[in-house]
Amino acid sequence: EIVLTQSPGTLSLSPGERATLSCRASQSVSSSYLAWYQQKGGQAPRVLIYGASTRATGIPDRFSGSGSGTDFTLTINRLEPEDFAVYYCQQYDKSPWTFGQGTKVEV
Amino acid sequence: EVQLVESGGGLVQPGGSLRLSCVASGFTFSTYWMSWVRQAPGKGLEWVANIKEDGSEKYFVDSVKGRFTVSRDTANNSLYLQMNSLTAEDTALYYCARVYSSSSGRAFDVWGQGTMVTVSS
After folding, report:
1. How many Å lie between the alpha carbon of B109 and the closest alpha carbon of chain A?
2. DSSP code of A56?
3. Which of B16, B46, B51, B53 is the most buried (most CB within 10 A)?
4. Residue A69 and residue A34 in contact, taking contact as beta carbons nearer than 8 Å
5. What is the per-residue pLDDT for B84?
6. Residue A93's closest CA among A22, A26, A45?
7. Nearest residue on chain B to A30, judged by CA atoms?
8. pLDDT tens digits for B18-51?
């Protein structure tokens, strides 16, 4: 099983700042099969990035994904108030499909 | 509007069974893999099961193998999760999700609102 470790667990930032979230895999993950999700309280997750760097439909360009192999990054430029949420990475490369434990971005 | 609506959750005793349903609308259900993902209270996301477009392939996380089955009914645009021998560790909000696939990658691009399963005596 591929274990995804996200860091930091919590990121305390202010609106307008940049957030850099890390996702490290226990073994290499094909870039095509790494995605990022945002989840706000009481809501279902929403896909932000797939294929490590492709923004999903309707996602603002302040969200960007990068990385390959075992190290992936989600960057949120100029945080907006609505961006404060929990973010998960997920790999689809090998079964079982696994999620990271999440990073909370808080004010 | 593309939509997934789950139902069937509730309170069940340990060792009991429950069948979750997910009705899809607004897209061609038969052309997508579908999945179940769960989230225990206050915890992260856990993928539970996948089923291929035609139902010919199914995959499960180890913790539910032999207890859960997944099926689909194209005529009714429905996805199901049959859960048997439930334990407290199965207590979670269960989401159904559509698997989007392209040359650029995959993602769960559509999610339902979830249905809550509580296993307790």
Report:
1. 6
2. P
3. B51
4. no
5. 98
6. A26
7. B105
8. 999 999 999 999 999 999 999 999 999 999 999 9
